Amino acid sequence: MALLRDTGLSITEIAFDTGWASLGTFGRIFRDVAGESPGAIRARARATVHALGLVLACFVGAAQRPDLTIAVLEKRRRKAAAITDLQAKEVV
Known about the structure:
Strand content: under 5%
Order of helices and strands: HHHHHH
Number of helices: 6
Helix content: over 70%
Radius of gyration: 23 Å
Largest sheet: none
Number of strands: 0
Structural class: mainly alpha
């Protein structure tokens, strides 16, 4: 996907450069695996890059971070609350 997103190589060049002997087979297998054609993936990736230019970089970075379900400060707050609860139970 990075070759589609980050290079100017044609889809044909990408297929042959990655070892496929048949462009048709590459397209069919790619669509089966990715759920979209190589051309659709490239178009969506390029459109997304332009749209992301309007968003602050810190928000884009946070949204693209893997497994980010809650903010770091919220994790710290929950951890501190759990420690406080444990200490309170030990006192009683």
